[in-house]
Design brief:
Layout (H helix, E strand, L loop, with lengths): L6 E6 L2 E7 L5 H12 L6 E7 L3 E8 L25 E4 L12 E4 L18 E7 L1 H8 L3 E4 L2 E5 L4 E8 L3
Antiparallel strand pairs: 1-2, 1-10, 2-7, 3-4, 3-10, 4-6, 5-6, 5-7, 8-9
Length: 170
């Protein structure tokens, strides 16, 4: 039945990015992410927070910077041993560790300070890694950004996630 790890292909306006999901280490997070993918939630959303040598964040806003409605937040699985290294994909959240919904980010550098330490420093849950398309991530990280609708680090030209689809090598 198991045909290896699920992969999700993000078709973006700056190239395709393929993320291999780690269901074993982050079962709740992967299930949540796949639910959004299968519902078509990410189609037409943007990378709304881009900081070179840090990360690119997306999955929550339309090109008009309208925040999309999400499902209930999920538990933080940051203590799963996966690290926020370059290419690792993790869930974005607020200061509440258990507040992640649909937004995710791809680490553009090794961000050890985002890793789980203990309950006082809960970290950000990594649930996958980029296995193809890191050059697209690099291109996105290099775009010009500014402030828009009260948010900083927003690309001046929207970087659109045209589609997000489950893919497989089989």
């Amino acid at each position: 039945m198991d045909n290896g790890p699920n992969k999700v292909k993000l078709e973006t306006s700056m190239g395709d990015v393929v993320i291999e999901l780690n269901e074993e280490a982050a079962p709740v997070t992967v299930k949540n992410f796949l639910q959004y993918v299968e519902e078509g939630f990410y189609d037409g959303t943007i990378f709304h927070r881009v900081i070179p040598d840090f990360m690119i964040q997306g999955g929550g806003f339309t090109t008009e910077m309208t925040k999309k409605e999400t499902h209930a937040p999920i538990a933080n699985e940051a203590s799963n041993g996966l690290k926020n290294s370059r290419g690792a994909t993790a869930m974005a959240r607020t200061s509440d560790p258990d507040s992640a919904t649909a937004q995710f980010f791809i680490n553009h550098a090794d961000n050890d300070f985002l890793n789980y330490v203990d309950n006082n420093n809960p970290g950000y849950a990594v649930f996958g890694k980029v296995v193809e398309g890191m050059e697209a991530v690099d291109k996105i990280a290099a775009v010009e950004t500014g402030s828009r609708k009260g948010m900083d680090d927003v690309p001046t030209e929207p970087v659109i996630i045209k589609s997000a689809k489950v893919t497989s090598d089989k």
